[in-house]
Amino acid sequence: MFVLDTDHASLYQQEHPAIGERLRPLPAQQLAITVVSYEEQISGRLAVIHRARHPDERIQAFFWLQQTLHFYCRMPILAFDKSAADLFQRLVALKLRVGTQDLLIAAIVLANDATLLTRNTRDFQRVPGLLYEDWSIPLN
Length: 140
Known about the structure:
Layout: E1 2-4, H1 6-13, H2 17-23, E2 31-34, H3 35-51, H4 55-74, E3 77-78, H5 82-93, H6 100-111, E4 115-117, H7 121-124, E5 131-133
Parallel strand pairs: 1-2, 1-4, 2-3, 4-5
Helix pairs in contact: 3-4, 5-6
């Protein structure tokens, strides 16, 4: 199974060509996203809505909120469950110098024996045992 990090989810929603080319052929059951990415994207969308001052800004902000809702309604969302919570605590104890949100995502991916799709290889390479790939780079 492949799990989209928040950056890959955003690029996929914006129809990034390299990501779309690699994701489209995947069977639906091989692709998921974490509840942490859902929280990150919704928080970001709501922040943009609250900052919007002009009608065009609001229209665009609500458009992306609605697009995000549709995306997550179609995508399997992996939970932060007991297994992920236990892994998260172990990762925190290692003092990896990786942000909390990234450690939460890594714990969920590890708990599901999956591969994370991310551009943030610099941080995720610090997580022992985590498989990750960057699909935003064209295959040629």
